[in-house]
Design brief:
Elements lengths: L1 E6 L2 H9 L8 E4 L6 E4 L1 H5 L12 H6 L3 E4 L2 H16 L4 E6 L2 E5 L7 H16 L3 E6 L2 H13 L6 E3 L3 H9 L11 H9 L5 H5 L3 H19 L17 E11 L2 H22 L2 E10 L11 E12 L2 H11 L10 E12 L18 H13 L40
Parallel strand pairs: 2-4, 7-8
Antiparallel strand pairs: 1-6, 1-7, 2-3, 5-6, 9-12, 10-11, 10-12
Length: about 425
C-alpha cells in the first residue's frame, strides 16, 4: 500500500499557525508580485474565489467579505514544510517528497490497522507542527491521490481514507471526475469527455491500446494505476536536475541596461547557489526578457540568447561577467521589460563535465564561493553579493509583496515575542 499525506491549504495553514485570528476567516495567499491567488481557505472557497484567479478580478468580493490577503512567504512555507516532511518520514519505512505540501509514503509490510495508524499520524502532525493534513491510502500512487482528495472533501472520512477493498475503490472512482485524476490534464480531459469518458471509473476501463493511442505511455500508466497495478515507483523524480531556472515578474517595468544587468546578476547568484548546493556545474545558460502581456496597447516582445561556459562552472563571478558581455544581444533602448530570467542547462557533475584538448576540468575547490555560501547561510541570502549587485529588497524592480507576514522561523528579527 502507498499513502499520500497532503497539507490542507498549506500556505494558509502556515499563515494561521502564527496568527490564530485568521482561523474561521476567508484568507487567500498570492503569487509573486501579488498577482494571482494560489491558496485559499475553505471560507474563501465558499465565496466562489477560484484558484489562479487574478486578485484584481475579485477585488470587490475581497472588500465586501473582508477577505484577508497575504503575500507569499516562501521562507516560512519552506521551513514549515521541512518540519512536516521530516516528521512523516520518521514514521514510515520509506517516503518521497512530491511537492512543498505533499509526500508519498510506502506502507508495505506495516502490520497494523492502516486507518487507525493514519488517524494517529494526522493527530501527531497537527499537535507537533500545527498543520492539518489529509491522508489517502491505496494500492498505487494514483489511487492514493484519489483517496486523499476524497478524504479531504468527505466529512465522514474526516481527513483519512483507506481504499483497499475493490468495491470501495470502484465507488471512489465513480465519484471522481476524470479531470481530477492525477496525470490527466485539461487537454486530455476534454478529449476524453468527447468520447463519453467523464468519470475515473470509465477511464480505468479503457482498452490499453486506446489509452496509449490517445495519451501516450504516460496515459497508459495512469489507466493501469487506476486498476491497482503499480506503474509509478515511489520516488520517480530524476536523481539529477536537468535545468535550474530563476525568473521573476518585476514589481515595475524597467527599461535601463544597468537595471537589467542588476536583475540578471541577482538571478545568476541565486542560480549558482542552487548549483553549488547540489554539487553540479553548468556549461550553458539562456538569459531572457519579456514584455508585460497584460498591456495589449504596447508592443509585445520576447528576447533571449545563449551563453556558453568553458569549462563548466557554478561560479557566480564568471556568470555575471559573461551576462554583462552578452547583455546587448537581448537589450535595446526603449524596451519596457516586465519579466526576466536565467535558465541553466547542460547541467552535470564535475566528473562528467565536457572537456576538450585545450580546456580544464571545473574548479571543485572554489573557496571564495564556499565562503559566500557559508555567510549566506548564517546571515541571510543577500548578506554577500557580487560586485555592484545590490540587495533586491532595496530595488524598485524587486517583486511586490505588500501583504507579507514576518518570517517567524527563519529570521532572528521576526521571531514571535511571547508575553
Amino acid at each position: 500500500m502507498i499513502g499520500l499525506c497532503d497539507a490542507d491549504a498549506f500556505y494558509v495553514s502556515c499563515e494561521r499557525l502564527f496568527d490564530p485570528s485568521l482561523h474561521g476567516k476567508p484568507v487567500v495567499c498570492l503569487s509573486n508580485n501579488d498577482g494571482a491567488i494560489i491558496a485559499r481557505s475553505n471560507e474563501a472557497k465558499a465565496l466562489g474565489i477560484k484558484m489562479g484567479q487574478p486578485l484584481f478580478q475579485v477585488s470587490d468580493l475581497v472588500k465586501q467579505h473582508a477577505v484577508i490577503v497575504k503575500s507569499s512567504n516562501y521562507a516560512l512555507y519552506g521551513d514549515i514544510s521541512r518540519r512536516v516532511m521530516s516528521l512523516i518520514a520518521g514514521e514510515v519505512p520509506d517516503s518521497a517528497v512530491y511537492s512543498i505540501d505533499e509526500i508519498f509514503v510506502d506502507l508495505d509490510g506495516m502490520k497494523c490497522d492502516l486507518t487507525e495508524w493514519a488517524r494517529k499520524l494526522r493527530t501527531k502532525i497537527k499537535h507537533e507542527t500545527g498543520i492539518p493534513v489529509g491522508i489517502g491510502i491505496s494500492r498505487t500512487k494514483t489511487l492514493a491521490k484519489v483517496a486523499n482528495r476524497l478524504a479531504k472533501k468527505s466529512s465522514k472520512a474526516n481527513g483519512v481514507l483507506v481504499l483497499d477493498d475493490q468495491k470501495w475503490i470502484d465507488l471512489a472512482l465513480a465519484r471522481t471526475e476524470v479531470s481530477d485524476v492525477w496525470g490527466i490534464g485539461r487537454r486530455y480531459s476534454q478529449k476524453l469527455a468527447g468520447m463519453g469518458i467523464s468519470r475515473a471509473i470509465d477511464l480505468r476501463d479503457m482498452p490499453d491500446a486506446q489509452a496509449r493511442s490517445l495519451m501516450a505511455v504516460g496515459g497508459l500508466r495512469t489507466v493501469r494505476e487506476l486498476r491497482g497495478v503499480r506503474c509509478i515507483p515511489l520516488d520517480d523524480n530524476p536523481d539529477q536536475r536537468e535545468t535550474v531556472c530563476v525568473s521573476r515578474s518585476m514589481g515595475k517595468e524597467i527599461s535601463g541596461r544597468d537595471e537589467l544587468n542588476e536583475v540578471l546578476n541577482s538571478f545568476a547568484g541565486r542560480a549558482c547557489s542552487k548549483l553549488r548546493r547540489l554539487g553540479l556545474f553548468s556549461s550553458r545558460a539562456q538569459i531572457f526578457i519579456l514584455s508585460n502581456r497584460f498591456k495589449s496597447n504596447r508592443p509585445q516582445f520576447s528576447r533571449s540568447c545563449e551563453i556558453g561556459f568553458h569549462p563548466a562552472t557554478n561560479d557566480t563571478r564568471i556568470m555575471c561577467r559573461l551576462i554583462g558581455q552578452n547583455l546587448n544581444r537581448i537589450w535595446a533602448p526603449g524596451l519596457e521589460i516586465k519579466k526576466a530570467g536565467i535558465l541553466l542547462v547542460d547541467i552535470c557533475r564535475p566528473e562528467d563535465a565536457p572537456v576538450d584538448l585545450f580546456s580544464i576540468k571545473p574548479d571543485t575547490n572554489n573557496t571564495l564561493m564556499a565562503a559566500i555560501d557559508k555567510l549566506s547561510d548564517r546571515f541571510g541570502r543577500n548578506a554577500v553579493t557580487i560586485g555592484r549587485v545590490p540587495k533586491p529588497s532595496g530595488q524598485d524592480w524587486y517583486m511586490t509583496s505588500s501583504h507579507r507576514s514576518p518570517s517567524y522561523t527563519t529570521r532572528w528579527s521576526d521571531i514571535p515575542i511571547v508575553r
